[in-house]
Write a structure and sequence with these properties.
alpha+beta, about 15% strand, 9-stranded mixed β-sheet, two-stranded antiparallel ribbon, about 50% helix
Length: about 400
């Protein structure tokens, strides 16, 4: 216990310099956890929104369907395979017909994606029941809030939609907006118009056909579809969100590295200065019989205690701040909906145990390494030179 007591006395005896180092390191410690918690909360919300409003427990895709290439939508539909049709009959899946078209709000042309969905489905949280309403002689249609803001369409408005059916013939008709829905996922809102499935099949002359089928989250073992249809699980369908969050995390890691470098630089400078000013003390300890490895350990422990003090200090003010942000959420700007992923009005960070433990270990290990580097010079120091105040 001699070494820990000596290290504690020496580091507290330095005074203000010790606490300045601890404050800088604690800011880095709290900032890393906060930013990573925000990114984790963003990822969790985006995944939940995509699952609730778009992909459910997974999707069957027609072999020609590619959600990232709208030019494929015209040919990406066909009859449901028997295994998928059986899921639909049992209420465990819902088919969806996807096609491209164009609308003409206020005399302007705008390309859109038309999505036909069963008004009675309960698989995803799209409020499709409103599509069962009377369209007043037009086709009932539903759009999201962002789409309504961009096209300046409201409930009760009529707009002309043009499409090309399965035979390659262009046709057009009026649609009537019967509902503006609040969709957490922008992929079912921006540029999307929702129509009754059977009415859309009539429009495109594709009776009984679909582009995709969404299964419920409770379907444990989706069967093989066959017939050119393929099943895509959640890992596949959420890969783009994982990739986006990974890219943002990598960008944040650069900032973490710079902040941590500044904190470690202060600790390194303190260690170098302490060894220089305490050369006679080092020589005296070695002359009295203390092994050089023990002296190196003493100075390394003193430097590492900056990390411990930083963690304790960060916990004093960081825990209440992080807890408040977790409970009350962080208000997001209105333009957040244009970022490409689902962003809630108030973002709730998620601080997992793994994040806290990993950040703690990173701070402690790096501070210990930086503390050891100047202290290792003591092992090459001659006691006679140290007693005379010389550094060899």
């Amino acid at each position: 216990m001699l070494i820990p007591r000596l290290a504690t006395r020496n580091i507290l005896g330095v005074g203000l310099r010790t606490w300045l180092n601890a404050i800088v390191l604690s800011l880095v410690f709290v900032l890393i956890i906060w930013v990573q918690g925000v990114l984790e909360g963003m990822a969790r919300y985006a995944k939940d929104a995509r699952i609730d409003f778009e992909i459910g427990g997974g999707m069957y895709w027609h072999e020609a369907y590619d959600p990232y290439d709208p030019l494929t939508f015209e040919d990406a539909h066909g009859p449901l395979p028997p295994a998928v049709a059986a899921l639909v009959d049992r209420g465990e899946a819902t088919p969806m017909l996807v096609a491209t078209g164009a609308i003409f709000p206020e005399g302007r042309i705008r390309g859109v994606v038309l999505r036909g969905i069963d008004p009675g489905q309960r698989i995803i949280d799209i409020p499709s029941r409103f599509l069962a309403a009377d369209g007043g002689g037009a086709i009932p249609a539903m759009i999201g809030e962002q789409m309504a803001r961009q096209t300046r369409l409201g409930v009760g408005d009529y707009v002309t939609v043009r499409w090309r059916d399965a035979g390659g013939t262009f046709d057009a008709d009026d649609i009537r907006i019967v509902q503006i829905m609040q969709a957490a996922s922008p992929s079912v809102d921006v540029g999307q118009i929702w129509l009754p499935l059977e009415r859309m099949r009539e429009m495109f002359r594709a009776p009984g056909e679909a582009s995709v089928a969404v299964i419920g989250t409770g379907v444990a073992d989706p069967p093989e579809a066959g017939g050119g249809w393929a099943f895509h699980d959640l890992d596949d369908l959420l890969a783009d969100i994982e990739e986006l969050i990974r890219m943002k995390s990598n960008s944040a890691n650069i900032v973490y590295g710079l902040l941590l470098f500044m904190g470690l630089l202060a600790v390194f400078d303190t260690q170098v200065l302490a060894i220089w000013r305490r050369r006679r003390e080092i020589g005296t300890l070695v002359a009295l019989g203390m092994r050089r490895a023990t002296v190196v350990g003493l100075f390394t422990l003193e430097g590492a205690m900056h990390g411990v003090l930083a963690l304790l200090l960060g916990a004093v003010y960081g825990v209440p701040l992080l807890w408040l942000s977790r409970v009350r959420g962080l208000p997001m700007p209105e333009m957040a909906g244009d970022w490409g992923i689902a962003i809630p009005p108030a973002l709730y960070p998620y601080y997992g145990l793994r994040l806290v433990v990993a950040t703690t270990l990173i701070v402690l290990v790096t501070v210990t390494i930086v503390s050891y580097l100047p202290a290792s010079k003591i092992s090459r120091m001659r006691p006679t030179d140290a007693l005379r105040g010389k550094a060899s």
